[in-house]
Write a structure and sequence with these properties.
21% strand; nine-stranded mixed beta sheet; alpha/beta; single chain; 18 strands; five-stranded parallel beta sheet
Length: 446
C-alpha cells in the first residue's frame, strides 16, 4: 500500500472536495481512501509513505488530444518553409515530418512526449498518431513506450488519402489491428480508438473502409473543421457540412472524439449533441495556426461534452487552461465569460471522455478511482480552499509546478526526478533519432 500525504488534498469529488492536511491511500492501481493525514497514518501504519512536502495533492491531468508524432519538432526549422495558411502549415511541417518518421523515430517521439507529460502532471493521454514512412507496427511501438514509462494512453492512427491508397490501407489496418489487440488485452492502461485526419483528406470510399474495418470495435478520433478548407471541401465535393458527412457514415456517437470543431454551424452542433459525440478544443494550437477560435461556449450551452487538449503545442494542461480563458474572452469581447467552462472542460469533461474508455474513474480522488495522483509545488500567500482552487491554479501554477506523478498506483516521478527511468540515456537516444530526422528534412548533418 502507498500513502501520499503531508499536503492539501483537492479531490474534485463533490462529497468531500478537500482536506487541508490530507492524504491519499492507494492499494495497487486503485485509490482505497482519502482523508486527514493523521487518521490514515494511524489506519495504515505499514503503508509506504510518500511525502508531498506541503504541496497540493490532486488528481492527475488528462490530455484529450495530442500528437506524439510531433515529439521531435522542438526547435526545428525546415529550410524554405514559410507557411501563409493552414494547409501550408500541414504540408510544409507536419506532413513533412510524419513522412520521414521511421519506427525508431516514432519510438523516440513517444519517449519525448511521455516524459514531458509525466513531468507536467499529465497521467492520461489520447494520442492521434501519423508516421506515413513506416505505418505498420507504429501504434504497437508507441504502446510499448507507454507501458515502459507507465502512462495511461488511448491510441489511434491518422488515416488519410494524402499519400495514396496503399498508405491509406496500411493506416486502416494499423487502427483495426491495434483496436482488436486492445480489446483482447483488456488492459486499463492502454486503449484504442480509430483515427482519421481531417475530412478534406478523406474520401467517402475511405470513410466507408474505415467504418467497415472498425465494425463497432471502438470510437473514432477525427479532426473536424479545423480550417475553412475542410468546410469548403465538404460543401463543394459532397454537398454537406463536415459533421453531416460523418453522420451519414455512422461515425458519430458517444465514444467518438471530434478534434477542433472551429468552423461548425449551429446545425452541426445539434448533430453532435444529439449523437452524444464528444469534442476536444486545442486553444494554443488553433491560435498558433491562425485558424480561429472554436465556439466552445455555444457548444457547451447546447450540452455538448467539450474537453481540452493541446494538439501537442504544449504538454502543459494548465498552460492550455490559461490560454483557453483568454482567447474565449477576447473573442467574445467580454471579460466575464468562459471561467466555468474552462474548469469544466479540464477537470470534469476530460474525465468523462476518459471514462468512455478506461474502467476506473479518472480525474478524481475518491475510493475506487484510478490511483493517478500528482503533487504541485505551490505555497499560497492568500486564502486558499476548494472554493478558490481554480483561481490559484490559473494564476499561480503551471505544469512544471509538478513535483510528484503517480500513475496506476506507481510512483513514476518523485521530487522532480524520474524514479525507474534513466532520463539521460533516453534523451541521448532520442537526440540521435532527432538528428537523423532533422538531417533528412534539411538535407544536412546535425
Amino acid at each position: 500500500m502507498l500513502l501520499l500525504g503531508n499536503g492539501t488534498v483537492i479531490t474534485r469529488a463533490e462529497a468531500h472536495p478537500w482536506y487541508p492536511d490530507g492524504a491519499v491511500a492507494m492499494e495497487g492501481s486503485t485509490i482505497k481512501e482519502v482523508g486527514p493525514l493523521a487518521e490514515l497514518r494511524e489506519k495504515y501504519p505499514q503503508a509506504e509513505f510518500v511525502d508531498a512536502r506541503g504541496g497540493i495533492i490532486m488528481p492527475g491531468l488528462i490530455n484529450a488530444h495530442t500528437h506524439i508524432y510531433s515529439g521531435l519538432a522542438r526547435g526545428l526549422a525546415i529550410e524554405g518553409n514559410n507557411p501563409t495558411n493552414f494547409l501550408e502549415v500541414l504540408e510544409g511541417m507536419w506532413w513533412n515530418i510524419d513522412r520521414h518518421l521511421t519506427l525508431d523515430g516514432t519510438r523516440a517521439s513517444a519517449w519525448a512526449t511521455v516524459l514531458e507529460c509525466i513531468r507536467n502532471g499529465v497521467t492520461t493521454i489520447f494520442d492521434h498518431h501519423a508516421s506515413f514512412r513506416e505505418i505498420p507496427g507504429s501504434l504497437f511501438a508507441i504502446k510499448d513506450v507507454c507501458r515502459e514509462a507507465g502512462i495511461r494512453a488511448c491510441l489511434c492512427y491518422e488515416v488519410s488519402d494524402r499519400d495514396g491508397e496503399a498508405k491509406r490501407d496500411q493506416a486502416i489496418a494499423e487502427n483495426a489491428d491495434f483496436a482488436r489487440w486492445a480489446a483482447a488485452e483488456d488492459d486499463d492502461m492502454i486503449k484504442a480508438m480509430f483515427g482519421g485526419h481531417a475530412l478534406f483528406t478523406l474520401s467517402d470510399k475511405t470513410l466507408e473502409k474505415m467504418a467497415a474495418a472498425n465494425d463497432g470495435l471502438t470510437g473514432f478520433h477525427i479532426h473536424v473543421a479545423e480550417g475553412m478548407n475542410d468546410v469548403y471541401d465538404s460543401l463543394r465535393g459532397y454537398g454537406c457540412a463536415p459533421v453531416e458527412r460523418l453522420l451519414h457514415h455512422g461515425m458519430l456517437g458517444q465514444r467518438t472524439i471530434l478534434g477542433h470543431c472551429i468552423h461548425v454551424s449551429g446545425a452541426e452542433m445539434d448533430m453532435i449533441r444529439e449523437t452524444g459525440t464528444m469534442v476536444v478544443n486545442n486553444p494554443e494550437s488553433n491560435m498558433g495556426n491562425a485558424v480561429g477560435c472554436a465556439p466552445v461556449l455555444q457548444m457547451m450551452e447546447k450540452g455538448i461534452t467539450v474537453g481540452m487538449g493541446t494538439d501537442a503545442y504544449t504538454h502543459d494542461m494548465l498552460e492550455s487552461l490559461k490560454v483557453f480563458l483568454i482567447i474565449q474572452r477576447h473573442n467574445a469581447c467580454l471579460p466575464n465569460v468562459a471561467w466555468g467552462e474552462a474548469m469544466t472542460m479540464l477537470f470534469r469533461n476530460n474525465a468523462a471522455i476518459g471514462e468512455q474508455y478506461f474502467k476506473k474513474p479518472l480525474g478524481v480522488l475518491e475510493p475506487g478511482a484510478a490511483a493517478d495522483v500528482i503533487v504541485m509545488d505551490y505555497k499560497p500567500f492568500t486564502p486558499f480552499s476548494h472554493e478558490n482552487i481554480d483561481g490559484h491554479m490559473l494564476f499561480g501554477m503551471m505544469g512544471r509546478s509538478c513535483t510528484h506523478t503517480i500513475i496506476n498506483g506507481k510512483v513514476l516521478y518523485k521530487d522532480r526526478a524520474f524514479v525507474d527511468l534513466d532520463e539521460d540515456a533516453i534523451n541521448a537516444w532520442t537526440m540521435e533519432q532527432a538528428k537523423k530526422l532533422w538531417g533528412e528534412l534539411n538535407h544536412r548533418t546535425y
